[in-house]
Amino acid sequence: MFPNSLPSGSVRSAAELNERIRALWQRAGGSLSAQERAEYELLVVEWATAIRGEVVAAA
Question: What does the alpha-carbon distance between residue 13 and residue 53 come to, in Å, rounded to a whole number?
Fold first, then answer.
């Protein structure tokens, strides 16, 4: 598990996840290593889940 990631089932807002994704890209300088790519993929999946949850809650 990555140091900044939370266990599965944790709840982070889409905004927080978006900020983490942006920070990851900024730290990487636009080119992700294999480890960074794996972290990015996990963050994007969690972000998509958070977005779906926010849309459902708004409806």
Answer: 9
